[in-house]
Design goal:
Rossmann fold, 3 domains, four-stranded parallel sheet, 16 helices, 11 strands, globular
């Protein structure tokens, strides 16, 4: 609350009788007072430029203050200059301009390189602003901010902006929407999703759309590939012989883990394939019977039996061969990493911690893991 008594400016908290002088105001209070006065006293129908509207203001107050000032002065055109992308996203009805660079050569006119961002129907504006403001290639991943996908891919690709999108379907939709927006074509946007039983042409079609399918069943399996196990073993001060022995034990445990769940894994793989086929089948006619026929062609009993048999053959072949790499490609159960951690004689949380620290500190590990993903078809910009 501002008090103007006796030609002096004072301030007080709500419902308090005593005031304190302007000289005792915090920086945030002084800035807020200045901004309020500047906006309310501005000449009608003018353009007001506000540089860093967020400065010295708590983020909980920024949006509320500027909402109130915009409402109080609807006759003004307000141009905000800000580095705070979250604040920019709160100006929901305002056009957004991203300044990329400025040059003033000695023998040529000054040059501003800037974009007016068009909205993307399927993406929150805050996401578009983060991507435009990062000035790095963007990689959409599954999961949430701070989750395992975000954490691992941030360490693996520090030269990319990592943007969690949620599900694999959301990653695909986000990359597709971004690339279909003409004004955003200059931004390099990619996606990476878990293997999730995808094969052949499905992987190729997604790659053509700049969405890459990991060669591993899930992101957690990247923690237990041989390259990672060697580094974790070294961090635990195991000898090369001990690391080799424990890696062999890890492979045995992973195979046993999959064998115990064989029927569930086969059914899950067949179900996932059928669901994806249902999402992409062609409608050959317009009537109800045509629709029934098309669906039955994908999900008939014979079709389901065929998908189950193919899934069973894939899993059984992997179990018979016992190849560790194949097991990591097929088994996406979270308990798999716990089995490997046990083989290395540590708790799961300790294993996770060792991997994360190694990923950030060990350049050779990052290079090895990125090369593994490259060999599996993941090819991002700058690689």
């Amino acid at each position: 609350m501002i008090d103007y008594a006796n030609n002096k400016i004072g301030a007080a908290e709500r419902e308090m009788e005593t005031t304190y002088p302007a000289s005792s105001m915090s920086d945030g209070e002084r800035v807020a007072l200045y901004l309020i006065g500047h906006m309310l006293l501005a000449a009608p129908d003018r353009t007001v430029v506000v540089d860093e509207p967020e400065i010295h203001l708590h983020e909980a107050l920024q949006s509320a203050l500027w909402d109130a000032l915009e409402l109080a002065r609807p006759d003004l055109s307000i141009v905000y200059i800000t580095h705070d992308l979250d604040f920019a996203a709160t100006r929901m009805r305002a056009p957004k301009v991203v300044m990329r660079s400025y040059a003033r050569p000695t023998a040529a006119p000054q040059h501003w390189d800037w974009d007016v961002l068009d909205p993307v129907a399927t993406l929150p504006e805050a996401v578009v602003l983060r991507i435009a403001g990062s000035r790095r290639p963007t990689l959409f991943v599954e999961g949430v901010r701070g989750g395992i996908d975000h954490d691992i891919y941030s360490g693996l690709y520090p030269d990319h902006h990592i943007e969690p999108a949620g599900s694999c379907e959301a990653v695909i939709a986000a990359v597709t929407a971004f690339r279909r927006t003409p004004s955003l074509h200059r931004y390099k946007v990619f996606g990476i999703i878990d293997g999730d039983d995808r094969e052949g042409e499905e992987r190729a079609a997604l790659a053509r759309a700049s969405v890459y399918v990991s060669p591993l069943a899930c992101i957690a399996n990247l923690l237990v590939v041989p390259e990672a196990l060697a580094v974790v073993g070294q961090a635990l001060r195991y000898t090369d012989e001990d690391i080799a022995r424990r890696t062999t034990e890890a492979s045995r445990r992973v195979a046993s883990h999959l064998a115990r769940r064989r029927d569930t894994v086969v059914a899950t793989r067949a179900r996932a394939t059928t669901i994806r086929r249902l999402g992409t089948f062609n409608v050959t006619g317009n009537g109800m019977q045509d629709l029934i026929n098309d669906v039955q062609a994908v999900a008939s009993e014979d079709s389901l039996r065929e998908q189950y048999a193919r899934a069973a053959a894939t899993i059984d072949d992997a179990l018979t061969a016992g190849r560790y790499e194949d097991l990591l490609r097929l088994d996406r159960n979270k308990g798999l990493v716990a089995e490997v951690a046990a083989a290395f004689g540590v708790q799961l949380s300790t294993f996770h911690g060792l991997f994360r620290r190694s990923l950030r500190a060990n350049t050779a590990l990052r290079v090895a893991l990125r090369s593994r993903l490259q060999r599996g078809g993941v090819r991002l910009v700058n690689e």
